[in-house]
Amino acid sequence: MTSKLHIGFIGAGRMANLHAGLIALEPDVRIVAAADIDAARAEAFAAKWGGATFTDHRAMLEQTPLDAVYICTPTTQHAAIGLDCLEFGVALYVEKPLDLDLHTARRFVDAAEVQGALAMTGFQWRYSEGYRRAEELIGDDPIALVNLRWYWTRPPIRWMWDRAQAGGQIVDQNIHLVDVGSGLAGEVKMVYAAYNERQANYEPEFVNWDVYALTLHFGKGAVGVCAGTYALFPEIQLEPAADFALRDRLVRITDKRVQLYTPGGVETWPNTEPLHRGVNRAFIAAVRTGDRSHIRTPLHTGLLSTATVLAANRSAQTGAPVNVAAFLAEEVAR
Fold it and tell me: Are 202 and 231 in contact (CB under 8 A)?
């Protein structure tokens, strides 16, 4: 390994810039390359963070010695690019969801496990101060109800308006809340979903659902609901939240804090750092030391959470509940 960690980015858009700004805080990190099919976007990224630019990610991998790579492309490219990266032995940070194609996603996860690659899925909520405090507040006590909510607007990135490319809000955004629920209440076993469209968004290019409602059965016995919408406005005053009801108390996690509701009142613990700081610090620490205990969300976790939200889409399309494990096995066998 080099004296500085050499990091490359595949995809040089919004999320790549967010991650770059956070890993730049690490004294032993150097961003040395960025690949994007849009040359101007790659050049703008490099002008800000440094490094060589490429329009072909394989050329970047072949020509640049790297310790780790961030995959920040559109969702449908994640697994295929990940498989390419495994050929070069780099550590991997893969944006969520893992992919819309579960067959390719499973190949990627299996190949990484066989190779022993250090690879993770970018579920930043699980690395937040709020989530870690919630683990302590809940402990081993049984959770009765999980209530997940994320209200938002039309995505700012236009390719996300097409559910064929981004999967819809449950897949692209609420997956964070579903993953938080799975982390604390056990993997989702069964999901039933109902969506609607053309109730709020009428733009011809908006080929997506407007509103999403899920019923979830978790592995440790809790039942839950998850609601989302693209109908509102960016400044919506209700922040995304994950509520966990236990006997005589409720734990609420948001992107900014965790709260404990009891008969004695409400206690609040704010996060003291940006939501994505913890996940980036953990990834760089794992790359630096080889200690995988820093990684809370390996690729397999990403696969299961991705399968859960895609199973929700299947349920909404068929009108029937979907067993997540059976759905994943079916999709992998295709």
Answer: no
